[in-house]
Amino acid sequence: MPFPATLDKKPKVIFFTDFDGTITLKDTNDYITDNHGFGVEQRRAGNKLILDGTDSFRDGFQKMINSWQVSLTEMISILEQNIKLDPHFRNFVLWAKEHDVPIVVLSSGMVPVISALLKKLLGEDLMKDIEIIANETQLVAPDNSLDKKGGWNIKFHDESAFGHDKSLTIRPYANAIAEMPNENDRPTLLYAGDGVSDLSAARETDLLFAKAGHDLIVYCEREGIPFTTFEDWDSILEETKKIWSGEKTVRKLAEEGLKRHRTNSSSRPLPTSGTFNRKTSLSQEQRPVIQE
Ligand SMILES: [Mg+2]
């Protein structure tokens, strides 16, 4: 159900989430690049250029896609055989359905890939309520076919340096909610993510679930963005239930998350300062370098 209809049922919580590496255990685009494209070493080298601001996420991702030796149809079938969802995601979806919590997938991947995987791994019945906002695909001449290697390409969601600027979807929600006259009607906006593609969403919600052991956490801590860590969707579900029932506030969970993160990673040095390259939605101030 797209915005603003999502707000009609007066949900207490709206849950936005990344797809690759957050709902899935492995990143689908990395998997194809490593096994059917220019390989893991070149991908890592490209990733460093994105992280230090030399290359944009959009251009780095396009280079990965240009190296893929498969049609979209083949890609989907390879992923269906090799990618698994977080084993607890299904339970989260069931709980969300029962409690009128909309789930919106915001991804830097492509809609047909995500929807095929959710359909296969979650089932059509459960996936049909999940809104997917991501890049699309387009046909390329002369082959003009998703069944042929050179017959298709990605069609980016917007003009941003991310290809898909996730804040563009979340912000209208935040604005509409801010205008709700009754404070008790205002839903809490949550987001779950793990990586660089989530930086465009990180500032937009009330609380961010950042995957433990991944560097989105370092960015959030340095930038003062409220976050809590998660291991899997079981821990996300437990904390979301507390927010939904009013047992805990997002502020309390963010404080606990920060404390837990600091206890677990006290020996880990923070990266040195640098710049992160982004064209839209966030200011051009100095950004930390985020190590892979
Ligand atoms: Mg991800």
TrEMBL record:
Q: Where in this protein does the record put region Disordered? A: 255-292
Any single GO molecular-function term of the entry would be: phosphatase activity
Q: Where is the composition biased (Polar residues)?
A: 264-286
**Domain of life of the source:** Eukaryota
Q: Output the InterPro entries linked to this UniProt entry.
A: HAD-like_hydrolase_phosphatase, HAD-like_sf, HAD_hydro_PyrdxlP_Pase-like, HAD_sf
Sorted alphabetically, the keyword list is: Hydrolase
SUPFAM superfamilies, A to Z: HAD-like (SSF56784)
For whether the record's keyword set contains Cell wall biogenesis/degradation, the answer is no
Kindly indicate whether the keyword Hydrolase belongs to this entry: yes
NCBIfam families, sorted: DKMTPPase-SF (TIGR01489), HAD-SF-IB (TIGR01488)
Q: What is this protein called?
A: Phosphoserine phosphatase
Q: Which organism is it from?
A: Knufia fluminis
